[in-house]
Amino acid sequence: MNLPIRPISEAEWPAFCDVLDEAFATTFHPVQIDRFKALTPLERTLAAFDGDLPVGVTAIFDFDMTIPGGTLLPVAGVTAVGVLASHRRRGILNGLMRRQLRDIKEHGESVAVLYASEAGIYGRFGYGRAADNVFYRIPKHGSAFVANAPADPALRLRTAVPAAAREEFVQVFDAVLRTRPGLYTRSPERWDSLLADEEFDRRGDGRLRCVLAEDDGGVRGYALFKIKRGFTDHDVPEGEVRLIELFAVDPAAYALLWRSVLDRDLCASVYAWNRPIDDPIQHLIAEPRHLNAGTLDELWARLVDLPAALTARAYAAPAELVIEVADEVCPWNEGRWRLSTGKGTCERTDDAPDLTLPVQYLGAAYFGGRPLLPYAAAGLVTEHRAGALRELSAAMAWEPRPWAGLVF
Ligand SMILES: CC(=O)SCCNC(=O)CCNC(=O)[C@H](O)C(C)(C)COP(=O)(O)OP(=O)(O)OC[C@H]1O[C@@H](n2cnc3c(N)ncnc32)[C@H](O)[C@@H]1OP(=O)(O)O
């Protein structure tokens, strides 16, 4: 791939979007394009040009993401990756990814993250599957809670127009932001995008709705959802609540909000498609088989500056070991690193390694949600000292499990 790669100019924005429109086989509404533009720093875009024409593109959103220990770390949110069908499988993605990772390093972020359209694409570029999500379809008839589910008589529900309740959403979200690795800061433009509710975007699910849980002291949680209306041939209601997000600052508010969406009149089920893997609802439903749960990969993570990333996070258990890292895409990460969680250091060393592994497994474990022993069982990690992988895996594990919660 010998095509030049550079950030796009303002004038090239429409052509940049045309590549995405074509690559994702979608038809963007002009309003969606404007919303996306408001989120995208042009100087952090990249395009590969065939003559004057962008044929492969990508961009970065800047945000801070919670890492184990509750620190907010600046990360590069990689997005909008697309290559024209006419130019596919000629190495354009490869060129874009390598250039982008060098740019991220220069920009000073130690970690890059993304949501993948297909799970097979990004491992080769050093991204590891860092978080999984759960999806449920919970029938109302199977949604009874366990007898000891929390309840607080001081709580009440309030229906509101989402746009009018925005400040309350922000208040709740900011209160939970640092409690789970993977959650990331939301700019006003990202809230605009989440709360956008244009007719063309509804896909038969009706308008955006919300319910808030509050007491005399203020808001304690919210659920954002749509409702797909429906009736059987015999006029039995079978509408479905499509849960977009639900956050609460305490368990009683969380339980009440779930009850509110599960008990919705004229609805027979709740479909929730992006929930954390350790979502507490799994323990509130008395018959958990009725969750009809499935899992998918969620966040992918890549260590761009390995020592900076590994010293930024907290660890759940002590680890003192030499990790030999293979990283052909970011060669500055290659070699042996002595990680000392006790001293809070990660330094280059010539000492004999305890482990040898590819960088993507460190990315997978970085947010605390990926045990490392299965990689050894799969023959993908080499342990030179017995017990070293268990030591690293225990140190990197974290609860609650990571989840970014909002596709970017
Ligand atoms: C974060 C995001 O935005 S995710 C969105 C990703 N974009 C899409 O899914 C849109 C549709 N797809 C596309 O635009 C393109 O097919 C892309 C971007 C996925 C790939 O672009 P290409 O320029 O064809 O990839 P390129 O030729 O550089 O391939 C690099 C490597 O990735 C592999 N690869 C490419 N696409 C895929 C895929 N979909 N699944 C698995 N492997 C893939 C290639 O085989 C090649 O492997 P190799 O290095 O072992 O030979």
UniProtKB/TrEMBL annotation:
Pfam families: Acetyltransf_17 (PF17668), Acetyltransf_9 (PF13527), SCP2_2 (PF13530). Gene3D superfamilies: 3.40.630.30, SCP2 sterol-binding domain. Keywords: Acyltransferase, Transferase. GO terms for molecular function: aminoglycoside N-acetyltransferase activity. It comes from the Bacteria. Acetyl-CoA binds at residues 81-83, 89-94, 117-118. InterPro entries: Acetyltransf_17 (IPR041380), Acetyltransferase_Eis (IPR051554), Acyl_CoA_acyltransferase (IPR016181), Eis_dom (IPR025559), GNAT_dom (IPR000182), NAcTrfase_Eis (IPR022902), SCP2_sterol-bd_dom_sf (IPR036527). Transmembrane segments: none annotated. The keyword Transferase applies. Homohexamer; trimer of dimers. Belongs to the acetyltransferase Eis family. This is UPF0256 protein. It comes from Acrocarpospora phusangensis.
